[in-house]
């Protein structure tokens, strides 16, 4: 399962997408995110399975078509 | 004997036990770091390899900090790190040779690393302050190691079939060694506690360790055995926290001492 990884530098700042990883479950996703992305001093970090990210809209197709 | 001398003696005995313990921890962490490093390439998942790289660096960092502390005891740190033969190493005996497959590494991660952590936790308020300062930071990093080990042990146990059998056998082999590793309730152990150098030793730490890993032992059905298992200390060298026989194998020794790199050291 692919997980998307988000983090921010300080409280109140917007979460930033910082990468993704493969993990079989939430528990290992958490551990792997820590190992892979903890080199900077993040205030907090979150992972979410990619298939749980719901698309609102995308302009990509319209722009390519133009 | 003067009053000052009688007061100094338990203090000295306590400090000698601290020195022994720091070397045990430093050697074990150096060896464990090598074991993690061996799986940076070839772990079952790319991400697990990255986690091993991270844990290897942590353990080698901890080992360096701990070896450096031994200067305060008059040790020749360069000799300790690069000049000893196999019989001089005080690592947990399980680390003497490389595990032959991934489940073996997972057991080192989930159980041996946790045994080291339980021991380090007992030193958080140590009267030997340089040690207390260092274990604080080190324990922060260990939380992630424990999470990785636990997640993987559960994963293998729940996979069933051969994976479960292999990991259960590895746990059964590791457990008696780790339970004995905390040592007997000896005078030296009492000096550590009475002098305020550790908040517990021997069987108290053994119980803390068992309590910590009980959920994982339960996963592979090792819990009843573990509870029944009281270690014997025949041939156990308390200062080494292991039996004297053996030590790291030749390949391991060459790598942890950095034999092939000595010629490139410029200082």
What are the main properties of this structure?
heterodimer; A: 66 residues; alpha+beta; Ubiquitin-like (UB roll); three-stranded antiparallel sheet; 2 helices; globular; B: 267 residues; Ferritin; two-stranded antiparallel sheet; 10 helices; 2 strands; 1% strand; disordered N terminus
Task: Provide a compact summary of the structure.
Chain A has 66 residues and is α+β, with helices and mostly antiparallel strands. Chain A is built from two helices and three strands. Chain B contains ten helices and two strands.
- CATH class assignment of chain B: Mainly Alpha
How do the strands line up in the largest sheet of chain B?
Answer: 1-2
Broad CATH class of chain A: Alpha Beta
Number of strands of chain A: 3
Poorly predicted parts of chain B: 1-7
Write the layout of secondary structure elements.
The complex is a heterodimer of chains A (66) and B (267).
Chain A: E1 2-8, E2 16-22, H1 26-37, E3 44-49, H2 60-65
Antiparallel strand pairs in A: 1-2, 1-3
Chain B: H1 3-37, H2 46-69, H3 77-82, H4 102-121, H5 129-159, H6 161-181, H7 187-194, H8 203-219, H9 223-228, E1 236-237, E2 242-243, H10 250-257
Antiparallel strand pairs in B: 1-2
Helix pairs in contact in B: 1-2, 1-4, 1-7, 2-5, 4-5, 4-6, 4-8, 5-6, 6-8
Task: Write a structural description.
The complex is a heterodimer of chains A (66) and B (267). Chain A has helices spanning 26-37, 60-65, and strands at residues 2-8, 16-22, 44-49. A three-stranded antiparallel β-sheet of chain A has the order 2-1-3, with helices on one face. In chain A, 27% of the residues lie in helices and 30% in strands. Chain A has 66 residues and is an alpha+beta fold. Chain A has one domain (2-65): Phenylacetic acid degradation B (Ubiquitin-like (UB roll), Roll). Chain B has a single domain, classed as Up-down Bundle (Ferritin), CATH 1.20.1260.10. Chain B is 66% helix and 1% strand. Chain B has helices spanning 3-37, 46-69, 77-82, 102-121, 129-159, 161-181, 187-194, 203-219, 223-228, 250-257, and strands at residues 236-237, 242-243. In chain B, a hairpin with a 4-residue loop joins strand 1 (236-237) and strand 2. In chain B, helix 4 (102-121) runs antiparallel to helix 5 (129-159). The longest helix of chain B has 35 residues, at 3-37. The termini of chain B are far apart. Mean pLDDT of chain B is 93; it is low at 1-7. Classes of the chains: A alpha+beta (66), B mainly alpha (267). At the A-B interface, helix 1 of A face helix 2 and helix 5 of B.
